[in-house]
Amino acid sequence: MSRISEDERTAVLLTAVGGPNSLDEVGPFLLDVRGGRPTSDDLVNEFRERYRRIGGKSPLLDISRAQANALEGRLNGDDRATYRCYVGMRNWRPYIRDVISEVVADGVDRLVVLPLTPYYSRRSVGAYFAAADAALSTVARLPDVAYVESWNTEPALIGMFAAKVREGLELLAQRSFHDPVVVFTAHSLPKKLIDGGDPYERELSETMALVLRRLPPLRARMAWQSAGRTDEAWLGPPLEEVLEEIGTTGEKAVLVVPFGFVSDHLEILYDVDIEARAFASERGLQLERTDSPNTDPGFIDAMAAAVRSAGHPSSRSRSGESPTPVI
Fold this sequence. Notes:
alpha/beta, Rossmann fold
C-alpha cells in the first residue's frame, strides 16, 4: 500500500450509473442509458410508474452523496492526509465529466476513482473508468490518478454482508420461519460478456463464498435479477424462476440477499420489494430481503480500505467497453 504524505490533498470520486431525480427525467435518463436509441412511450411510461411507486425519483444520488460524506469523515478521521469525496454518474447528472472538472479546479494532488460496486465488469466499471479517462484527457494539470478496479474481498465488506444475512435470518425466525432458503442476487449481464472473460460473475461467486464461510450452514442459492430486454442470453437463472421452483417444493419463506447492489434504488425498491415480493406471495412464500449497505459503518469501512489500498497512479488508460443498452 502506498503511503500518503501528510499534506497531500486526495480526491475520491465515487462512480455509479445514475438515476432520474424526478419523473420528468425518466425519459431523458432512459435515452442516455440506451446510448441515444429511441425509447418507446410505453417503456417510458412503464418506468415512470415504477419510479412513481418508489417515491417519484431514484434515491441513488442522495444515498451516494450520503456514502461520500460518511467516507470522507471516515478517511479524515483516520489519516493525516486531507480527503474530499465526490460523486459522479455515468448516465445522468452529475456526470463524471463534470465532476472531474470540479475535482481538478479544487487543485487536488491525487485522485482515487472508486466505483460504487465492489465487482468489476467492463460493462459498468469499465465504462466509469473510460468516462473518467476521457474527462482527464482534457485537463492541463493532471493529478496523480489511481483506479480501484474491484474490492469484492475486503474483509469489512464480507463482514457487513454476513451481518445483514444474520439479521434477516433473525427477523424470519421471529416470525417462525427458522430455515428459509437464502437466495443471493445480483444484476444480470449478457452471457457473452462473461464468456469473453469478464470477471463479474467470478467476483460475485468469490464474495458469496466468503460471506457463507462466516455463517452457519445455509441452504443458499444464486439467482440473477433485472436483466435487460434484449434477445441475447443473460446470466441466469432469473430470480422469478428460482422463486417459482422454491414455491413448488413446499417451502414457506425465502431470504433474498441482493449483495450485487450497495444502495436502495430501483432494482431493490421495485424489482425486489414490489415485484419479487408479489411474485413470491402468489406462490405462498414469505419473502424478506437483507438491508442494503447504504451508509452502514461496515460498508464505509470497506470503501475506506479500498481507497487506502489504491496503488499510486498509473498512466495506463483503461478503455472500458462502451455499455450496450440494457433496457
